[in-house]
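can u do me a favor
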């Protein structure tokens, strides 16, 4: 629990242990990426990806898999310009600073995905791609998340590497969760397509 970047009052076992222990198996194959409230020390053990539990696969800090005919790529973590160009220097047990920086997106992780030669069907990123608000009507978004308007105007909302990957990999679908609200945008990768 000490590796979770959460206030202590939220550090409690929920249901994942049932799957992690193998007591139960996820009812459908599940593929996930990391965010900013995961147990970073456990995810670090699967840096390149792997089975976190039976039927639950972690894509790693940057990963790609084929599931049947579906190509899925993902970038774990959140963007922080200060740590983006740094190597991974965090080691467990984490201190007040490294418990946050351990899940920051790193340049070489994004770089690995930029070298995929084939396009992907689904792209997962914890952070929203930078500039995604330019591709949608934001009125509903601003009605529930008023502070996003300032962040969009200041150019601080979103992850620049995720936007670069969205442009390069041209996925049919992109899913991001960091901002905890439903928001739909349509990005045309090329005119009419």
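np, heres the sequence
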């Amino acid at each position: 629990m000490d590796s979770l970047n959460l206030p202590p009052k939220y550090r409690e076992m929920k249901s994942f242990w049932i799957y992690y222990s193998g007591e139960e198996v996820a009812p459908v194959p599940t593929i996930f990426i990391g965010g900013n409230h995961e147990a970073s020390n456990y995810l670090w053990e699967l840096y390149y990806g792997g089975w976190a539990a039976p039927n639950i696969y972690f894509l790693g800090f940057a990963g790609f898999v084929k599931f049947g005919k579906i190509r899925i790529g993902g970038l774990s973590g959140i963007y922080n310009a200060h740590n983006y160009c740094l190597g991974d220097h965090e080691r467990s047990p984490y201190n007040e600073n490294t418990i946050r920086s351990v899940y920051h997106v790193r340049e070489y992780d994004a770089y690995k995905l930029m070298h995929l030669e084939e396009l992907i069907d689904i792209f997962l990123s914890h952070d929203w791609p930078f500039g995604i608000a330019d591709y949608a009507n934001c009125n509903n978004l601003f009605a529930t998340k008023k502070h996003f308007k300032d962040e969009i105007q200041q150019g601080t909302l979103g992850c620049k590497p995720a936007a670069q990957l969205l442009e390069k990999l041209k996925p049919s679908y992109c899913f991001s969760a960091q901002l905890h609200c439903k928001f739909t945008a349509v990005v045309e990768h090329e005119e009419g397509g």
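The CA atoms of residues 8 and 110 lie 31 Å apart. hope that helps!!
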